[in-house]
Amino acid sequence: MAGHATAHVDSGSLWGGKVSPFSVSYGKLMMWFFLVSDALTFGGLLVAYGYTRHTTESAWPIGEETFDSLPFLGHGYPLMYVALMTFILIVSSVTMVLAVEAGHRMDKKGVMKWMIATIIGGFFFLGSQAWEWSHFIHGSHFGSVELADGSRAIVKGHFGEFESFKVVKAGKHHKEGEVIKESPDELFHHFRYAAMNGLVKDNQITLHDGSVATWKRQHDHNLELIVKTDGNDKALTKRTVISGKEAEKMYWDAINSGEKGRVIYGADLKSNEYGPSQYGQFFFFITGFHGFHVFSGVIINILIFLGVARGTYHRRGHYEMVEKTGLYWHFVDLVWVFVFTFFYLV
Amino acid sequence: MERDDIIEYSLDAHHSEQEGKKIRRKIWVVTAILTVITAFEVALGSLVKQSSDSWIYVKILFILLTILKAGYIVMTFMHLGDEKRVLKYFILVPYALFIIYLIFIALTEALAVNGAWNTYGG
Hints:
The complex is a heterodimer of chains A (346) and B (122). Chain A has 346 residues and is α+β, with helices and mostly antiparallel strands. Chain A is built from ten helices and twelve strands. In chain A, helix 4 packs antiparallel against helix 5 and helix 4 packs antiparallel against helix 10. The relative contact order of chain A is 0.15. Chain B has two domains: 67 residues; 39 residues. Chain B starts with 16 loop residues before the first helix and ends with a helix. Classes of the chains: A alpha+beta (346), B mainly alpha (122). Chains A and B meet through helix 2, helix 4 and helix 10 of A and helix 1, helix 2 and helix 3 of B.
């Protein structure tokens, strides 16, 4: 709370440049200037995102279709995880403002307590973001497929787990007739690699060592293909949903084509299963740049916390350093509010 | 080096235990508002599908709620509402003007490019 200067100012010092026209200290004013410039950077990034989204020919992905998973619980929870991340960041913003408030009462213990809570909240957010990135990069079990007519479909449903591979043609390591039993995740890992590289054809998979195998797996459930094409109205997209037996046939025909690039799993900088390649690039850049801000914010908070613990600011007579780092930390929260809306919600 | 020829504004920021109580109350109220808005947004987002006709209104509502949330964060958490008025507008007005201009020009251009692609092919 900067408030108004209580010190009496005579006209001599007023005209002599002794007074700040904004009634704030140099450091706080400069922090605000920095935040305005940083806000311009983020504003530019989000406007660039909006530009690309409005120009792109192919349909842009919908947040609640892309981000619908929770740790340990699987998929089917649209946007719950991002909402949780938002909540974590809001709470850590609250603990920060409580630390600032304690500083205004010269309550050193209170400042330390709330700053520790803020730092913990920051680490929680960073951890959540790491999970989300990992999930985004690895993608779903189905991936997205290019159908026979050349359109690309994203796939929803429950993937039937792999039980075993049976070798029908020997390679370097596996003999003919051998049954490979590994965990469903490990078997899927082999399958994912093979399907991406065009090594799955006519219900047979070519493994790393050159051996060819057939697979045994459970049935898929609720398989749905969602095909998006641009409608005539630019902002709206036409959305076709194919389900049931027809969807299963179209999906597995594409997988079994033996053509490289028919199926895309997860995301990298070149392509992703969710939509146009720019979507993945913007995801990595915007959330990555924001995550970098959170990371540096945590580091700065730790440094200032050490200053508080040493009593540096108490001796100085005010806790303005806590207030200034607080401004930066709230700014990080502020940016996330906009990223949440424009990247995930709309 | 401390200068003694300028006013130390930082020392004016102190407040008493009594005022602190009021400020903390305000902080918790704003926390509740921000949480409720976020929960409402997620719930509304899962109720209304993007393919529905009313989506455009939901979208506008989301953007308005975002600006409301941002207002609470900047004015209460960042204390900009308590600063001198000249500082408040010195920060907000130039930024708002520039960003509104940027959004307008980028989206107008984007729709023109999209229209051209639809007409002449990408």
